[in-house]
Design a protein that fits this description.
single chain; about 300 residues; mainly alpha; Arc Repressor Mutant, subunit A; Tetracycline Repressor, domain 2; about 0% strand; globular
């Protein structure tokens, strides 16, 4: 594979695979793509992704921004290489687990740990399937864990996507709470108690009856990991499907094309956006009116003498 072969690879992807041509001219040999990426990752780890710029990386290395452009020609390429570096490779545990479920669990834990170590990874938008060596290695490890199952290739990939989705969502929440704990100088229990108190103050049974019941049941003070629970529940479903395939039982599964917005073709129309905004405002007014009705009904019952019947 070459950068100028059959495929016109983007510069960042070619750099990640090590098939991009080296710059003909540039600063001293101390400069390299690897050093640039390492410096950018250090900035992101300490200050966040928004702090990363070609100028900031150049200043950290003691060079001019133009010197960096000889090696990494665009910030988008730099972010792709940062993602590749921070993601690294899955552990041997994930590939050597005896049971498919153990391998999948190991991959899930390792991906969540990556997001906690490098939370800025969550700020990088998903723009398509992974096209770098390390991200491909993670997909390969997931497919390897499922290699001995009767799942067809498309369903193995679907399970891998299920796990990476769980890990990303868990990473978003866990990384956010870790940041809150640092900012407040409080442990997780203190943060949970504070948030529970806010919910109890704002959420009323009249406006949100089921949510208030959950709050009263202590759902926001529960120390169990909801993401681990839903992962195991999801894997139970995969296991049941595998068992059905192994016994040659017909398992009809719902299938659908990639989802698309019903109004994607007119989303930029001004009059349509205004009408949609009006609908949202009307829905909000309806929710407020229903809350007021529930309050009025409760107060009306409270005013009625006990034991009185409707006339």
């Amino acid at each position: 594979m070459t950068d100028d072969g059959d495929f016109d690879l983007p510069r960042g992807v070619a750099l990640a695979w090590g098939v991009a041509a080296s710059p003909q001219r540039g600063p001293k040999r101390e400069m390299s793509v690897e050093r640039i990426v390492d410096a950018a990752v250090e900035i992101a780890d300490s200050e966040g992704l928004s702090a990363v710029s070609m100028a900031a990386v150049a200043a950290k290395l003691g060079y001019t921004p133009m010197s960096l452009y000889r090696y990494v020609s665009a910030k988008e390429d730099l972010i792709l290489l940062m993602q590749e570096e921070a993601t690294g490779l899955p552990s041997d545990e994930a590939r050597s687990a005896g049971q498919w479920r153990d391998g999948i669990r190991a991959l899930y834990r390792e991906q969540v740990a990556l997001y906690l170590t490098h939370p800025w990874l969550l700020d990088i938008p998903i723009t398509g399937a992974p096209t770098t060596p390390n991200s491909a290695a993670w997909m390969d490890a997931g497919l390897h864990a499922l290699a001995d199952t009767p799942l067809p290739a498309s369903e193995r990939l679907a399970v891998v996507l299920l796990v990476t989705g769980h890990a990303r969502w868990a990473g978003i929440v866990f990384a956010a709470y870790a940041r809150i704990e640092r900012e407040r100088g409080a442990d997780s229990d203190a943060v949970a108690r504070s948030e529970d108190a806010v919910f109890r103050h704002l959420i009323t049974a009249d406006a949100f009856p089921d949510l208030r019941a959950a709050i009263d049941a202590g759902v926001f003070l529960d120390e169990t990991d909801p993401f681990a629970f839903i992962l195991e529940l999801s894997l139970d479903g995969v296991a049941a499907h595998i068992d059905a395939l192994a016994t040659d039982v017909s398992v009809p599964l719902a299938s659908a094309p990639w989802p698309e917005s019903d109004d994607a073709d007119i989303a930029d129309d001004r009059r349509y956006r205004e009408a949609r905004r009006g609908v949202r405002q009307a829905e909000k007014a309806l929710r407020t009116a229903r809350t007021a009705m529930r309050v009025a009904a409760r107060e009306a019952r409270a005013r009625r003498p006990r034991g009185s019947a409707a006339q």
